[in-house]
């Protein structure tokens, strides 16, 4: 079994890509940075636990590698790089910095978007990874007008900001890389929240305008934040169009294309069929703010400074000055030919108003989601076996490989190494030589480890599924029992 390496799994689009790849049955490995409060694995597990709460489906856990695109060798240990070389066939490079302006090329967005891409390409060459899927942006076209073809890239165009320049350079790196197969490139336009739920975990672009209007609503004269004032601040007349695409559709299209080799090696504009007039999103912001934002008290003189509003608003929106232009027409020939069954949802007033309302009501992500804790860490329990793998010559002759996939919070996947009828070690990930797979949830693993039930009982009741053949079921059950409760072996 081969794996696909995903970068940027902790971001908005990346979290959808990971969810959708897992639901599609892909074996995934993710490269994630830790934070001051959470390890890389904890971050991934928390994200997947939230998806499980929303979808009601228990998800398998990917292999998690702690690393950083901005560090030498991606911050990976030599053993991690060997693991990638032995298991990975493809990369989905989705990580990116959305910093719009950065003159210093030793900082963002250049570090992640250009140098990070260079390092992940080096990893592919070093590890012999053949497939490279690169998430770029439709705005590598810069300030060009008219029809933008999927086959075009660098025509000497002027770019609107450093983010666009860095993504243009990154895509040029990908196209010029000496890879075993031609890269597949995805160019989404402006990604917004989920078309079904209206939710998002990041608040750029459209959401930044919602947040600014919401903040100012509590400090200026009620009614002074109108769709007209929003457009005036951008020097727009309302007829310009912006190309918004829901994150769930972008993810669905990418995952579909990743799984179809016949569509690889092309560039896809993941853009809207009909861009949204800015007057529509201006009105959606105005209505959401008037209905859901606490408005200023007009009796307080400190909250009635219209000049302050105008100055502050214009200063803050300067960072989004790239929005001051009408989007070009993005050619969608390849996208339509390959994903005609996945039409992009229409981004209209109702959807934008819903997204603005949810952003305000959740205080733009400042109300943390409380997901249930993992409770019991299967990986910690399996550490005794993975530690043994560093000592024993497990891959030697006479060793049988069994796969163990534990889905749900705190879960993971391992290759169990068996010699002389005993489990002797375990390695992260399920290898191609695993002819038999054990499937169970983390809750069931905990019950087995606590001896509330035997493996044989769990198999009979359907809580443990054994997929594969060639070995007697009772022998497999005994092997799994020793892996779960090794002291009994």
Task: Describe the protein's architecture and organization.
Helices cover 38% and strands 17% of the residues. It has helices spanning 12-23, 40-55, 78-87, 110-127, 162-176, 206-217, 227-233, 247-258, 278-292, 306-317, 333-339, 349-361, 378-389, 442-449, 455-460, 473-484, and strands spanning 3-7, 28-32, 63-66, 88-93, 131-135, 147-148, 184-188, 190-192, 241-242, 244-246, 267-270, 276-277, 329-330, 399-407, 412-419, 422-428, 436-441, 465-468. The mean pLDDT is 88.
Which CATH class of one domain is shown? Alpha Beta
CATH fold descriptor of one domain? Rossmann fold
Shape: globular
Quaternary status: single chain
Report the sheet-strand fraction. Answer: 15-25%
- What structural category arises from helix and sheet content? alpha/beta
Low-confidence spans: none
State the end-to-end distance: 28 Å
Question: Count the helices. How many?
Answer: 16
Order of strands in the sheet with the most strands?
A: 3-2-1-4-5-7-11
CATH 2nd-level architecture of one domain: 3-Layer(aba) Sandwich
Specify the helix fraction band. 25-40%
Please tally the β strands and state the result: 18
Sheet with the most strands, sense and barrel status: 7 strands, parallel
Rg on CA atoms, Å: 25 Å
Could you give a short description of this structure?
Helix content is 38%, strand content 17%.
List strands and helices in order, with pairings.
Layout: E1 3-7, H1 12-23, E2 28-32, H2 40-55, E3 63-66, H3 78-87, E4 88-93, H4 110-127, E5 131-135, E6 147-148, H5 162-176, E7 184-188, E8 190-192, H6 206-217, H7 227-233, E9 241-242, E10 244-246, H8 247-258, E11 267-270, E12 276-277, H9 278-292, H10 306-317, E13 329-330, H11 333-339, H12 349-361, H13 378-389, E14 399-407, E15 412-419, E16 422-428, E17 436-441, H14 442-449, H15 455-460, E18 465-468, H16 473-484
Parallel strand pairs: 1-2, 1-4, 2-3, 4-5, 5-7, 6-13, 7-11, 8-10, 14-17
Antiparallel strand pairs: 9-12, 14-15, 15-16, 17-18
């Amino acid at each position: 079994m081969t794996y696909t390496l995903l970068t940027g799994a902790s971001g908005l689009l990346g979290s959808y890509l990971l969810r959708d790849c897992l639901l599609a049955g892909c074996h995934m490995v993710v490269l994630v940075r830790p934070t001051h409060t959470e390890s890389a694995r904890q971050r991934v597990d928390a994200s997947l636990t939230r998806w499980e709460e929303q979808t009601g489906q228990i998800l398998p856990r990917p292999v998690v590698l702690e690393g950083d695109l901005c560090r030498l060798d991606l911050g990976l240990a030599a053993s991690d790089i060997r693991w990638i070389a032995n298991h990975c066939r493809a990369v989905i490079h989705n990580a990116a910095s959305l910093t719009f302006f950065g003159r210093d090329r030793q900082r963002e967005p250049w570090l992640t978007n250009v140098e990070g891409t260079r390092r992940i390409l080096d990893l592919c060459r070093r590890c012999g990874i053949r497939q490279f899927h690169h998430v770029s942006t439709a705005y590598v076209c810069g300030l060009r007008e008219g029809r933008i073809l999927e086959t075009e890239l660098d025509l000497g165009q002027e770019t609107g900001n450093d983010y666009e320049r860095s993504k243009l350079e990154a895509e040029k790196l990908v196209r010029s890389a000496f890879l075993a197969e031609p890269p597949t490139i995805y160019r989404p336009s402006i990604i917004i929240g989920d078309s079904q739920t209206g939710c998002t975990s990041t608040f750029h672009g459209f959401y930044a305008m919602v947040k600014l209007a919401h903040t100012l609503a509590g400090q200026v004269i009620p009614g002074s934040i109108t769709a007209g004032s929003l457009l005036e601040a951008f020097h727009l007349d309302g007829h310009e169009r912006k190309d918004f695409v829901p994150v769930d559709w972008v993810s669905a299209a990418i995952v579909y294309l990743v799984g179809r080799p016949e569509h690889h090696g092309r560039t896809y504009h993941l853009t809207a069929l009909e861009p949204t007039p800015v007057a529509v999103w201006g009105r959606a912001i105005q209505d959401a703010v008037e209905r859901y934002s606490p408005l200023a008290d007009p009796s307080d003189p400190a909250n009635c400074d219209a000049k302050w509003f105008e100055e502050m608003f214009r200063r803050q929106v300067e960072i989004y000055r790239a929005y001051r232009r009408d989007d070009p027409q993005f050619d969608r020939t390849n996208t339509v030919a390959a994903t005609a069954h996945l039409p992009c949802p229409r981004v209209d007033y109702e959807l934008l108003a819903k997204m603005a309302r949810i952003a305000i009501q959740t205080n733009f992500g400042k109300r943390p989601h409380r997901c249930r804790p993992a409770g019991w860490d299967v990986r910690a329990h399996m550490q005794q076996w993975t530690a043994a793998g560093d000592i024993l010559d497990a891959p030697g002759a006479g060793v049988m490989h069994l796969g163990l996939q534990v889905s749900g919070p705190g879960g993971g996947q391992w290759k169990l190494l068996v010699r002389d009828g005993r489990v002797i070690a375990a390695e992260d990930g399920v290898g191609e030589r695993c002819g038999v797979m054990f499937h169970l949830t983390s809750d069931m693993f905990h019950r087995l480890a606590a001896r509330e039930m035997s493996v044989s009982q769990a198999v009979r009741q359907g809580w443990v599924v054994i997929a594969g053949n060639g070995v007697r079921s009772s022998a497999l059950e005994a092997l799994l029992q020793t892996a779960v409760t090794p002291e009994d072996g």
